[in-house]
Design a protein that fits this description.
alpha/beta, three-stranded mixed beta sheet, Alpha/beta knot, binds S-adenosylmethionine
Length: 241
């Protein structure tokens, strides 16, 4: 999968050169190209922004410079263009899965007050927000999107790694434990060291339901529950009363 990132601050993308996403690039499972919008300014001082028409605080990125940067992407016609924006629809597990099926994404990062609306209308297919708060730029949201989407691209994670995680089946993941067996007098749940996988799976499902009930009960509305799941939840509700 290919990501082209249009940004004024490509140097901010160091974190996604390391760890799992860094290795995925080395293996050429994903490709991330950083394009500096400033390189496309025709101004002798490399100016990319100007004051907003109608007045108000801050600076707005010029449409012509952003368009030139976008136009420099040779194979742009087969790509989906996403503008990272607090005005966009929220990035969710469902959206991440949907985007992971794409072959080529162009991510446009705004900065300062944002980007002139005319170029957004011209090139953007979708606006995506990472939450109801305002950041100084679209670079962190673009990295969040690249990281979350790449995890579902074949060959990025080990097999099965993304299937049991939070949100995959609509629930939060069960708690995880590792060595030592005894940490400050707190023991690893005994069931996990029995080697009985049927029982371990049953325990994990219960813990997953419990975690979701206690931390994100809103998620339970959209989960397909078995008779046993419903009994578990009933018991939990009674325990918590
Ligand atoms: C300071 S913000 C501009 C906010 C804009 N004036 C507004 O009030 O909606 C600068 C840039 O950061 C990015 N950004 C800020 N918050 C974001 C969020 N929650 N999700 C995605 N991108 C965001 C966008 O690319 C935006 O153009």
């Amino acid at each position: 999968m290919k990501f082209d990132v249009l940004s004024l601050f490509p140097e901010m993308f160091e974190p996604i050169k390391t760890s799992i996403i860094g290795r995925a690039q080395e293996k050429k499972v994903i490709e991330i190209n950083l394009i500096n919008i400033r390189d496309f300014s025709k101004d002798k001082h490399k100016k990319v922004d100007d004051t907003p028409y109608g007045g108000g605080a801050g600076m707005v990125l010029r449409p012509d410079v952003v368009y030139e940067a976008y136009n420099s992407i040779q194979d742009k016609d087969d790509a989906k263009v996403i503008f990272l924006s607090p005005k966009g629809s929220r990035l969710t597990h469902k959206k991440v899965l949907e985007l992971s099926k794409e072959k080529h994404l162009i991510l446009l990062c705004g900065h300062y007050e944002g980007i002139d609306q005319r170029v957004l209308d011209e090139i953007v297919d979708e606006e995506i927000s990472i939450g109801d708060y305002v950041l100084t730029g679209g670079e962190l949201p673009a990295m969040v999107l690249i990281d979350s989407v790449s995890r579902f691209v074949g060959g990025v994670l080990g097999s099965g790694s993304s299937e049991e995680e939070s949100f995959a089946d609509g629930l939060l993941e069960y708690p995880q434990y590792t060595r030592p067996d005894d940490f400050k007098g707190k023991l690893v749940p005994e069931i996990l060291i029995t080697g009985n996988h049927a029982k371990i799976n049953k325990w994990r499902r219960k813990e997953s339901l419990k975690m979701t009930y206690l931390k994100r009960p809103d998620l339970l509305k959209n989960v397909e529950l078995s008779k046993e799941d419903r009994e578990t939840l009933e018991n939990l509700k009674n325990e918590c009363q």
